[in-house]
């Protein structure tokens, strides 16, 4: 890693957010080619349901059984890259922990959204979420496909958890320029609170939330993750993915790890894997 593990660890401990560089990209190159192939195939056949497809087709949700990651990228969980990430998380948690969610996350270019779907998800500022799942054909729902992801913390994905987990985002394509800009608010996890999208105020520099009658302002930091780097943040750190105004998708692997002693809030235990035992 460019950041020696101790440096990444120190940064995470003080801010709840860190960017690390992997020493070797081979596993990411392999994962990218597999996801790219699926993406191109979906692009040819169509990502989106037709109006006449509803409502039955809309009931097909991703499960651990249909997950693209677990069927096509399960090898990644045996890779050197995965072990490097687990080693860093072991230093953060300092006790046994598990991988409890693994996904391929894609932010589609705005230009690929059909008109009626685009109307629903733009402008970005008016949206509570950017998950395109209900508009996608079942095959596309094996991936997690977004238009964007407004300000939130990852606790909202697992509301029944103890929020004692970390998210790891591994880009398979770079996130510079207008390519789904990713922002985080270092130290926001210290509030230990979950906020709804309408409780979060945003201006050019700051993200603000009110808690127990006090307004808290956090500087936002752009994470221009490059291929070969990964971001890691605490479940309660505020972050957002802005729309992808580029012409190609922004693809990532996302892993979530939680202490074995904590509640993961998972509804489908098929996603869960033992990661590290102290
Ligand atoms: Fe998130």
Arithmetic mean pLDDT: 93
Quickly give the CATH architecture.
Sandwich
List low-pLDDT spans.
Answer: none
Beta-strand portion reads 25-35%
| N/C terminus separation | 23 Å
The domain tally reads 1
Share of residues in helices = 10-25%
The largest sheet, given as strand count, sense and whether it forms a barrel, is: 7 strands, mixed
Q: Give the CATH H-level superfamily.
A: q2cbj1_9rhob like domain
In total, the number of strands is: 14
> How does the overall form come out from the CA principal axes?
globular
CATH fold-level label: Jelly Rolls
CATH class category name: Mainly Beta
Rg to the nearest angstrom?
Answer: 18 Å
Number of helical segments with 4 or more residues: 5
The ligands found in this model are:
fe (ii) ion
Primary descriptors:
binds fe (ii) ion; 21% helix; globular; 5 helices; 4-stranded antiparallel beta sheet; alpha+beta; 278 residues; Jelly Rolls; single chain; 7-stranded mixed beta sheet
Description of the molecule:
With 278 residues, the chain is of the alpha+beta class. The protein has one domain (5-276): Jelly Rolls (Sandwich). It has helices at 5-15, 26-45, 68-72, 80-93, 115-121, and strands spanning 17-21, 97-107, 144-146, 149-152, 165-171, 182-184, 200-202, 206-211, 214-219, 221-222, 229-234, 239-241, 250-259, 273-276. Strands 1, 2, 3, 5, 11, 13 and 14 form a seven-stranded mixed β-sheet that branches. Strand 7 (200-202) and strand 8 form a beta hairpin. The longest helix is centred in the N-terminal third of the chain and has 20 residues, at 26-45. The model has no long low-confidence stretch (mean pLDDT 93). It binds fe (ii) ion (FE2).
């Amino acid at each position: 890693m460019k950041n020696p593990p101790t440096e990444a660890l120190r940064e995470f401990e003080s801010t709840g957010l860190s960017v690390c560089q992997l020493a070797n990209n081979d596993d990411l190159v392999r994962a990218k080619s597999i996801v790219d192939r699926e993406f191109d195939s979906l692009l040819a056949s169509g990502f989106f349901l037709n109006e006449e497809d509803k409502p039955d087709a809309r009931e097909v949700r991703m499960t651990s059984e249909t997950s693209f990651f677990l069927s096509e990228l399960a090898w990644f969980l045996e890779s050197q890259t995965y072990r490097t990430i687990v080693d860093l998380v072991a230093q953060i948690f300092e006790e046994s922990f598990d991988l409890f969610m693994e996904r391929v996350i894609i932010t589609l270019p705005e230009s690929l959204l059909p008109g009626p779907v685009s109307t629903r998800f733009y402008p970005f500022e008016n949206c509570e979420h950017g998950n395109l799942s209900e508009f996608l054909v079942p095959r596309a729902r094996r991936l997690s496909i977004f238009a964007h992801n407004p300000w939130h913390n990852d606790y909202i994905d697992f509301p029944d958890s103890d929020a004692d987990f970390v998210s790891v985002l591994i880009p398979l394509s770079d996130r510079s320029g207008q390519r789904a800009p990713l922002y985080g608010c270092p130290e926001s996890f210290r509030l230990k609170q979950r906020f709804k999208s309408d409780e979060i105020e945003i201006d050019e520099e700051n993200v603000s939330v009110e808690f127990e009658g006090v307004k808290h302002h956090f500087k936002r930091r752009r994470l221009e993750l490059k291929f070969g780097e990964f971001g890691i943040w605490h479940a309660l750190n505020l972050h957002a993915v802005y729309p992808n105004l580029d012409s190609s998708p922004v693809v990532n692997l996302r892993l979530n790890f939680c202490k074995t002693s904590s509640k993961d809030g998972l509804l489908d235990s098929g996603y869960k894997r033992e990661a590290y035992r102290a």
